[in-house]
UniProtKB/TrEMBL annotation:
InterPro entries: RNase_H-like, RNase_H-like_dom_plant, RNaseH-like_sf, RNaseH_domain, RNaseH_sf. Keywords: Signal. It comes from Hibiscus sabdariffa (roselle). Residues 7-88 form the RNase H type-1 domain. Residues 1-15 form the signal peptide. This is RNase H type-1 domain-containing protein. CDD domains: RNase_H_like. It comes from the Eukaryota. The keyword rRNA-binding does not apply. The keyword Signal applies. It holds the Pfam family RVT_3. Transmembrane segments: none annotated.
Length: 119
């Protein structure tokens, strides 16, 4: 057994990669990805030298070059808190297997706070 460590930056790049792989499998052709990490947005846009020699970043750029309409943008962490909370509730589960008819109880308070803050 061995330990594997990666930076938050690499973990966020992996999350973007996994997201793109999933939407490609679903055959979506218009994609809007909002990230709360400005550096990852710049990496995806090709405006950053961070992780320039990273094979995963090269793979992401290949995916982004496919014939799709893709928009990657930065969103503040505060505005992304509900999406982050939902992601945490399904982490480790198979994608597409969870269907909610009501928001999970852990998310309700985030939704209320978000609505109160952003109207």
């Amino acid at each position: 057994m061995f330990n594997v460590f990666c930076s938050v930056l690499v973990a966020e790049v992996w999350a973007a990669h996994d997201t793109f792989m999933h939407v490609w499998r679903l055959e979506f052709y218009r994609i809007e990805l909002e990230l709360d990490n400005k550096i990852v947005v710049k990496i995806l846009e090709g405006d950053s030298s961070a992780l320039a020699d990273n094979a995963l970043v090269a793979r992401l750029h290949e995916l982004l070059a496919r014939e799709r309409v893709i928009r990657v943008s930065h969103i503040s962490h505060v505005r992304n808190v509900v999406a982050d909370g939902l992601a945490r509730t399904v982490r480790g589960r198979e994608i597409g297997k969870d269907v909610y008819l009501q928001p999970p109880s852990k998310i309700v308070s985030l939704l209320i706070a978000n609505q109160f803050q952003f109207g």
